User: What shape does this take?
Amino acid sequence: MAERLRADLVLEYPFTRTTGPVIGAFLTGLREGIVLGIRRPDGTVLCPPTEYDPETSAPLTELVEVGPGGELVSWTWVDPPRSQSPWDQPHGLGMVRLDGADTPMVHGLLVDSPDELSVGMRVTARWRSEREGHIADLEGFVPEGAGQ
Amino acid sequence: MSADPSIPPAALSGEVRLPEKLAEVEPVRSVRTPIRLEYDFIPGSASSGYLNAFADRKILGQRSPVDGAVFVPPRGVDPRHGAATPDYVELPDTGHVGGFCVTRLPIPGRDDLEIPYVSAWIHLDGADIGFLGLVGGIDTSEVRMGMRVRAVWKPDDQLGRTAENILHWEPTGEPDIPVTAAGTNAWHAKQAAESGEQD
Assistant: This one.
C-alpha cells in the first residue's frame, strides 16, 4: 500500500467591489471615524444602511450619524479565532444597536473574557488609527467607560 | 402593477444625503474583499492510483464497464451510468488538442505562467475525454483544434507523484486530426464508426 498522498490546495480570489452610493457612504463614514445609518420613511434608522427599504423596496437616501455608543443585543464568544479572522485573540461577536439606530449590527467585542459580556450592557466603538474605508476600520466594540 | 422596462430603476438615480461632516471628503467607491479557501487535499483511491503512476512516467485512465469509454483522470466511476470503474488503463503520452484557450492576462498567484500561454483540452490516444494541459513549443497563433501533441516530461530525477511532471504538450508534427473527429467530437465519431462496422 502506497503512502497516503496529500497536498495544500488554496483557492484565492482578490476581488475588488464597487460600493454604490449607500455602502460607499457607510465606508466613507468608517474611514472618517463615524458610523452611518439610513433613515426609512417611518423615521426609523437602519444600521448598517441598505439601499432599499426592506418592506417597501423604496430607495433610501438619508444617511445619518449613529453611535458611537450602543447596547449589546446578543453575543457569542469566539475562542480561538480562525486563521483569517480580523482578530488574533479570543473575543466576542455581538449584535450592537447603536444610539440613534433601530437595528443592530454585528461586530467584534474586544474584552478578555466572556464574563465581561452581558445582554443589555453599554458598549462603544473602538477605531483603528489608520483607516481606509473598510469595515475593519472599526476595530470592534468595548464596554463603555473601558477606555477606547 | 407591471413594470415598464424602458424606465430605469429609480434606486440609484436619487442623490444620497450625507451628514454635514462628510460633505467635503473624498467618497469611498470600492472595497477590497479577497476570499481565500485553504484545503487539505487528500485524493481518493482512483486519483491516488493516477498520481502514483505519474512517478513512473505513466498516465492511467479507467475504463467504463458499460460501454468501454476511457476516462482520464480516473475518478473511480463512470458518471453517465453511475457505474464503478475499477479497471485502470495505461495511456500513451500522445494525443491531440481538442479545444484550447489563449490567455493574454496574468492570473494573480500564477507568476510561473508566462503570458501569452495556451491551455488546452488534451485528448490522449485511447482516451474518450480530454484533460487540461498547457501547450508549448509552438507560437500561440499556430495552435489549432486537432493538432497532434506529445507530453514534455520533467527529467526522470525530478519526477514526483504529481501531474506537474508534464511540463507542457508540444506538437508532434504529424498531420492534424480532422476537426469533426477531434475533441468532444471524437467519442461520437468513434461510436458512429463502430455502429457502421456492425451494420
About this structure: Chain B has two helices and twelve strands. Chain B touches chain A through 37 residues (CB under 8 Å). Helices of chain B lie at 45-54, 185-198. The first strand of chain B starts at residue 30 and ends at 32.
